[in-house]
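Office hours follow-up: a student asked to see two folded examples consecutively, so here they are.
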Amino acid sequence: MNPRSWLYPTPRGLYCAPGDFYVDPAVAVPRGVITHGHGDHARPGHRSVLATPETLAIMRARFQDMPDTQQQALKYGDGVKIGDVDVSLVPAGHILGSAQVVLEYKGQRIVISGDFKRRPDPTCAPFEPVPCDVFITEATFALPVFHHPSDAGEIGKLLRSLQTFPERTHLVGVYALGKCQRVIKLLRAAGYDKRIWLHGGLANLCTLYQQHGIEFGDIALVSDAILETFKGAIVLCPPSAIADRWSRRFFDPMPAMASGWMSVRARARQRGAELPLIISDHADWSELKQTLSDVGAPKVWVTHGREEALVHYARSIGIDAEALHVAGRDEEEGEG
């Protein structure tokens, strides 16, 4: 049976016909299965949503009008039958609650990776390779030039900069969901035990992570500071805030940015990052290749990024690979 006969892209998103549902649909649909809470995957307005409990919590925090009747929580490893399709979720290692969607129908197993990374991250469950007949993989950093350095090494750059410029406020641009919380934990793992200051736009999701058992140590909002100079402090903020009037309150700020895209000098300049930190929440080129080996799928469909390079590589090692152009998969630079 051709897997394209029962799972295929449509203008609304990736559609599973025998289950009558979409995976990460681009528009509001009757039933959606959501891999994780980032805005290019989780959208409002669906009549019914299936996701991990953590992803549902993120969606509730972002979409205030989600009725309980629309939500079906599925824990990692549990399964449910939707129509004639067995559906389960396994960790993707991307952010809190992120999942790969495992679909089984008439003896075929298709795994939809969603966004994923392979590196350790205490803010989310680690990626689990699932053997399958078809693997649908993201390709955000699917070019041979993308080899992300160690996370600890990049955090070390930030801490060395603090030592070199002890009077300057280090403003670190981070995406609010996933990157912010991960950078805090990386700083703690590196031994940084001082207060970390947050822009107000990061507060709600940090609180949500804390409610799910992720501890951050001493964090506080910039807006709550009294008689604080912020000299020598680390302040996390949305990337857009670095160039905003908000940043003028800080003494001689050192603009930094944490993203996998910081390996591209033009993007670092575009973001105004004097201190680019290459910290990615996606798999790099070598990790994508390793994942294809780990899952052992004879067919690979590539989406959301640099499809051509990964398709070419997969075919070179005997995998039947093709690009799968799914609606709504726009690149989010801040989320890299």
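And the second, which I mentioned at the end of office hours:
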Amino acid sequence: MKMLINGRLKGEEKIEIRNPYNNEIIDKVPAASKEDAIEAISAAKKAKDEMISLTAHRISEALYDTSQELKKRSKEFSHLLALDSGKPIKAARDEVKRSIETLKLSAEESKRIYGETIPMDAGIGGKDFMGFTIRLPLGVIAAITPFNYPLNLAIHKVGPALASKNTVILKPSLKAPLSALKIGEILNEYFPPGAINVLTGKASIIGDEILKSEDIDKISFTGGFKTGKMIAENSGMKKLTLELGGNDPLIVLKDANIEKAVEGTIRGSYLYSGQICIAVKRIIIEEKIADEFVQKLVKETSKLKIGDPLDPKTDIGPLINEEAAIKIEKLVSEAIEDGAELLYGGGRNGNLFEPTILDNVKPSMRLVKEETFGPVSPIIRVKDADEALKVANSTCYALQAGVFTENIHEALRFASELEAGTVLINKQSTYRVDHMPFGGFDCSGMGKEGVKYAIEDMTRTKLIIFNKN
């Protein structure tokens, strides 16, 4: 599969893309050179004028037509996601459905980029003036996306960027780049040459050109904290949106509905083998109900099927590569050595890692201090709600959090005092609605996604004042 630069497919396919489940080569992609990156940035800059000249309704139609083309090819894209990322096919189908909706949301919001009328009568002679604002595109947006939702997260950046008349350089993760290349080809059919460019290759080459280029107006990055911090330190005056992961807690208080909490834990810990920024990373539970909760969690976890992502019955597929699986294996072993109790799972076979439950985990263990990208349910027992809140907030990450309680007062308290960009009551942290604001605080990054909110970050406000005399 080739890169997309200035409306043309190009590049010699050299980099092997392997199926995480069986390690078979499924395709090859180009390794972009410094010159390729410069050409793509130049093409995006050149395409700005043509994008600005398009009407909002013309852009809306293009995005809507792209959504319908994706819908027609949903089976193809779902299969590609399962092969490319190792995502179970039923989860891959859900990602395609969400991607279609995100494109449709972008199409709708492209017609709702409004300014406002500003009263001018506060100053001297103000009654003689009329003021209003308009919103303008920033220019060229660099979108850097991860492997875990390679289609939907690409669309969450590209859709709003195009909707607001920006042009785009998309750099997908080499761990799962194929769906981004495919959607780029479709978008290219509906937008001017250079409006959408997709580069594959080493981040050190492509990213370096993006960081130092004065023609890039904004970087939207989803990935790890260290890389995000480096981008922030080296991006100059570029506008930034950084989604840098989470260490999301699921808090179960003594008055919670245990069955619903267990259901939320299963969904939150094991969806896409836990390789999600908003996956449940820590289960913080009051001691009074911990034994009952754990017993039911083990029972329900034992029902999950691990195996081939293309099998519709598979619940747990492989991690993205063996390096990731080995990392989880080491974290689990280290926690057990430090006193955690293994209740279920813990085994690794190549890239496959069993859904795993650990009890009596301490907040100081590396398994729960860092963002763990794996199918692990670490149980942290606490004596009361006060301790639960303290433990939940004992991390620099602040993306999302879930709280299970039937007490409205505790629900409101936790909603207010939890450090997180989103707090969900009686729902696990893996819930995301694509039109709502999404993003965290502190080590989890800056800025918001969600189509409407991304568009706000991808535009600038200009004030226009008329002297009526």
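Two things to take away from it. Residues 249-425 form a domain with the Aldehyde Dehydrogenase; Chain A, domain 2 fold (CATH 3.40.309.10). Residues 2 and 232 are 30 Å apart (CA to CA).
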